[in-house]
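agent: user wants the structure for AbiJ-NTD3 domain-containing protein from Streptomyces wadayamensis. delegating to structure tool.
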Amino acid sequence: MDLVRLRSLLEGVLITLYRRYTGAELPSVCERINLPPPPDDSSITKHERLSASLSACPDNRLPLVAEAVLNHEGLVAWQSMPLEDVLWVGRHYIEVPARTRRELAKELDLSDYLRYPDRFLAMLGSLWDLGENDFEVWGPHLGTLHDDIQRHVIRFPEDWSTEHLFEQLGAFDAVHPRFARFLEALVSPSTLPDESAQRRVVELANRHLAALGAELRQEGEEDGYPLFVLIQSRSGTTRRPRNLIFATLGKPDIRLSSALDNDIEVAERADEFLVYDRPVGKDGLLWRDLLAWWQETRKDSNATRASRSLYQRMANSLPEESKGQHNLFWIYHHIYQNQLHEVPALLPEIWLHWDPKTKQERQQLAMKNLRMDFLLLLPGNRRVVLEVDGTQHYTRDCGRTPDAARYAETMASDRDLKLRGYEVFRFGHGELRDRETAQPLLSSFFSRLLQRSPDNQP
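agent: tool returned. relaying tokens verbatim.
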């Protein structure tokens, strides 16, 4: 994320804020948008007080400030769009090149949208600057882009082609995340409350997106209509997890409370494992999502205290004898400690399979590797398994004798996971045994995996 650019944009927003609020209101404004308290100094201007507050704000908190400003301060489009672009580009996104955008526009028929002109204009105004707050000249006559679209697209639809509309919006040059959201909005039920029309646009878009390894895929419903999101279809699985059983201290004692709906419930020993049963969004499962669930289920409104207790509860599930697992878990949270809310949650001791019977009872039909060391749920439905391999993975007799059959069993399990859409990364226990040498290795690995540099580089 371009934090220098983000800070500069927030400096510009301060002009709006100091004009909008009185000096007495500034402390509450700063608290609302996650800025440090402004100086209590009547000898300086409101703008200087806000500037001092922003200067005191560390870089890693700027995204939270920008999010709060966008959510609470009612910025006009020319102010909000640059902030959104910096935030969105700093997260996972799918690239749709200009050629694909233009070819899609050439084939997109707007007639279905013209049956819902108010919805269509509202959608465009939520993503593009239609000049509704300006008094600029657009084209050969006075007016705004909003006025032009009403005239040349809605009232006289033969005037503008879809390609020309996209050109006027700036859709061909927009950053990738904004265009992705535009695609999703074009097939949203709030824009197009007609399922057959939605699916026609999805079918058209997916013909162009297929070459990129992307697609608009239905992910639930909204008001009875299908809801589509843009995903990377060449990696990950086709489904999102329903139940995550993790941080286990023993075999989970669970049962199906509704076999028809695949709903599970804890039968006994609920304190021995955690079950996250909330929907996982298109951004994957972030630490902030897991923490919100923990706070709600534990009824703890103190985020700092809840964060510590959640971390400790998960750490307690790690095998005492596996120093490598403990180091991996600690290092991940250490290197991302200042941006933990924005990174995927690292789930320890995760159950990928579950069988009420034991291996001895199942014999040859027993499922292998029921539980994995760690799981990350990343954007685009990516499921990443991390394993720390001790000698038990390739030896017997407490590490004294090589065991080819045991090693083959581990490799067979890997192949099965990969064929089901998981990404599997294995670390040797020896390379993670020492925390000082493991940190640069893991910092580099997670930086490449998440495409996000750690705050705490060794």
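agent: one observation worth passing along. DSSP finds 18 helices and 14 strands in the chain.
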